[in-house]
Structures are given as C-alpha cells and as structure tokens.
Amino acid sequence: MHWRIKGLLQKTLGVLPGGDTLHYRMQRRFGGMRNPRREIGLKLDDWEGMVKQLRDAGLEIPGARLMEIGSGWYPTLPLACHLVGAARVHTVDLNRLLKPDLMRLCIEVLGEQLPRLAAVCQVDPAEVEARYARLRDASARSDDPAVISDGVIEYRAPADAADSGLPDGSIDAIFSNSVLEHVPPDAIDRIHRAALTLLRPGGWAFHSVNCGDHYAYADPKVHQLHYLRFTERQWAFWNNAFLYQNRLRAHQFVDAARAAGFEIVHDTSHARPQRLAQLKAMTVAPEFARFTPEQLCITTVDFIGKKPLP
Length: 310
Hints:
This protein is of the alpha/beta class. The chain has 13 helices and 7 strands. It has helices at 3-13, 19-29, 36-57, 76-83, 100-111, 114-121, 125-139, 145-148, 185-198, 232-238, 250-260, 273-280, 293-297, and strands spanning 65-69, 88-92, 153-156, 171-177, 199-210, 263-267, 300-306. It has a 7-stranded mixed sheet with strand order 3-2-1-4-5-7-6, sandwiched between helices. Helix 3 crosses helix 5 (100-111). The longest helix is centred in the first third of the chain and has 22 residues, at 36-57. It holds the Pfam family Methyltransf_23. It comes from Lysobacter hankyongensis. InterPro entries: SAM-dependent_MTases_sf.
C-alpha cells in the first residue's frame, strides 16, 4: 500500500466514531497483523534479546519485580516473564488495546517455546511447564491477565506510565518494546523521571526503540529514513492517532534518559552503511541539519539505564 494512502486512511479513522475498531479490523485483514503468529514470534525474539542484555547488566528475570510500558494488543513479554518466574509484572497502556483472542493465540505460541524460555533464563523446565499448564487452563475461563497468571501480571489501561501509583522503589526493572518512538518528547521525559522514582536503587530501565519511518513497513518504495524529508509542519499532516511518530533520533532517546538521571550502561546504536547511502541520496528537512549523518541514520537502538546507588 502506498504510504500516503495508509496515512490518509489512518488519519480519517482517527477522527471517526468507532474508528479504533475499524482500524483494528483493517490491521487484522490487510495490515501488519494479518499473520499474528509471526508477529508474536518476533516479539518473543525481542524478549529473548532483552533478557540477555539485562542479564549482562546484572538483572535476572526470575524473581524480579517488573513494569512494562505499552502493553499493546497481546502481552507477549509479560507472559514470558511470568512463565520463567518473575515475581510481579505490571503492564500499563494509555488505551485499553488488549484483545482476548490475540492473548490466547500468544499463550498458544508460548506453549510451543517452553524449552526455549527455560533455556534463556536458565531455569528448571518443569517449573516453566507447570506455570504454563495453569496459565493455559485459566485462560479458557478468563480474559484477565491477573487471573490467568496467578496474580503475577497486573494489566492497567487506560493508565499513564508516568503516574502509575506504584510505591517508590518497588520495581527492579522497567522496560518497553517499540513504544518510545510513538510517545511525545515531553512525555518521554516524564516517563524517565517517574521510572527513577519507581525503581529501587541500582534498578534498570530497558528500552528497545524502532526509530525509523514505520510507513516503510507498508510501502516498499520508501525506506526507514523517508520521513526525515519533511518539515515539522508537513509531518504534522501525516502523523495520526494510530501511527504517531515523534521522529526523534536514537541518541536523543538515550540522552533523555541520561538527562533524567540514569547511568547509561548499554547502548547498541550504530549507523549501518545501507542507511548512510540512503541518506546521501536524499535531502533532509532543516530541522535535522544539526545532526551528524551517523545520528540521522540510526533507526534502531536498545539501551539500558541504571538508577544510581545512593
């Protein structure tokens, strides 16, 4: 689909009564959720990457108290964390997006990956299998993540991650996956400041950010840097309620966490030759003139911030 058509459709649906329901149906039939099993598998890959990076930083998921920012339509990461023995997983979203049918499919896919989950977290496979059996059985009777997870997962939506109401110092790690690129910059700053309060001293914040043009997933004729051509005024027209993109560059997400008070202990950002070549062949809007080519070209980053000890 041409990216302009997608943008106009989403812009229109964003102001129509019932537009969110129509948008979801279109995503399931024509969009990125045509193959939800594949999408869930990709999220599980992301979960494995997060677990390994957090372990290298000093955190083990089993026994940890966690918070996810941006639950989405199916809580792959919270469910996986529960199965390997997380003590508590709070997951919040600005809008109530969770879909029971997708959550059940997610549970089914996770059931096919139990040995992998156990191996990634180095836990007893029998314990993972026992938790899964209880999860599967309970999911046949309830759509409530708390009920099906023996009270481990708390799903709250609508809810503001920067005003969660959780006790100070009660969380070991906060994480997000492909969320911050859709959050207004001032809200990102609030999220980081709130995270510092929620985390225990020495706790971690892990964020995986996809900061490339998401229209490129629908239109193969444009690439991940495409949206850098537009001024802020021009881009405001193409931004919409269902695909808001803040266009921040990777280093800005990391710098915002550092400015809030985090010690950055891990940063995967690097400029790929393909992106540098794409940038060289295009003209960027004046708003991006202050950035180096390398800063403009980085379209994905995983980073970990650590709350300093007293």
